[in-house]
Amino acid sequence: MMRKTSLILVGAAVGAALTLVAVQPRTILFGSSARAAVADTYKQLNLFGDVFERVRADYVEKPDDTKLIENAINGMLTNLDPHSSYMDPKSFRDMQVQTRGEFGGLGIEVTMEDGLIKVVSPIDDTPASKAGVLANDLITKLDDDQVQGLTLNQAVEKMRGPVNTKIRLTIMRKGADKPLELTLTRDIIRVRPVKTEVKGDDIGYIRMTQFNEQTTEGLKKGIAEIKSKLAGDKLKGYVLDLRNNPGGLLDQAISVSAAFLDKGEIVSTRGRNAEETQRFNARGGDLTGHKPVIVLINGGSASASEIVAGALQDHKRATVLGSRSFGKGSVQTIIPLGSGNGALRLTTARYYTPSGRSIQAKGITPDVEVLQDVPEDQKSRTDTKGEASLRGHLTGDPGKEQTGSQSYIPKDEKDDKALHMAMDLLRGVQVNSAFPPSAKASIPN
Predict the structure, then answer these.
(1) Are 220 and 256 in contact (CB under 8 A)?
(2) Can you give the pLDDT at residue 18?
């Protein structure tokens, strides 16, 4: 059996990590008190067996044995903390697809509108874009199956499939006299977790939406593209936008942090036993050439995002700007349960920033707080309650737990106060004592 470690946010698309840890068999010698504890545990398991058999025999309707067992397992795990759970085989497969960042599909970003699938955007150089699918197209049929009545997830699952297989889309397009029929051949679709651009003619902007297996490679390519467009002193610095990034893979958080650091600790993870403590350090050097960096966070920045922000903040490598992050400071291990049995997602450790801070139920506090102007009709929906508000969350530092933080990002960039503040600081238009960060206060390397 292999274990896989990931940092995940409850409710977010998550998955298993690249870091594999073999579970070795252990020989355990029990003392008398331990034997008594084991005996008591077996009594409780016998109680569970008795209840299970009584439900199977006497419940008003014949229950599904598999569902009974799955619900019992989930009951055990969800009462530990909000991030431990059982994944049935389908959920486990979906998680693996999500964290690989690639799958067999068509390359369309879609949403649901009036019971139909609406195309938000075809992704460049994919079967959808090559076949002529356009933004705002309405998909009414998938092969011979009506879309009406399907959920968005069900429709997406039908559009995904093995590479080189075909699917026929029936599309309603504004201005067309009749529905269009397009036959597409599925191909490998790679999710782009990193998008980069040059702001003005002097700032490299890096937007990171999740930490999957493609993230670090996307970051490296993005930095190289920015450097090719803004050589030498023309590049004032970088904005790393982690707002509303729910996290993902631990190893990707480490390698992303390392891309901005020459050396030093990035994060440590500490489990129940002291010997399980692990420390992860930067190697390979700063890919940006030591240009100034500002990291944007908000209430939706969680887990792996908080590791990156915390590492760069502690090393005084970047100024963190925005609103306090979510506060998910725990590590989940993905443990496959054998062929066809799904997997166990179990919280196994807390993580700590290089200076030894746990952000559990507290979050990363920005060096420069910038709150957005929120439209009246959205004010009730623009804050996240944070880890500390989740029922059964792991406790943070006593007296330091924090709940609630702004997570609103304006749709129109001209209204984005945090982004404009970051660019003004990099250009020297505005001045703040937190930028650039003081190297004298940095932690030992």
Answers:
(1) no
(2) 29
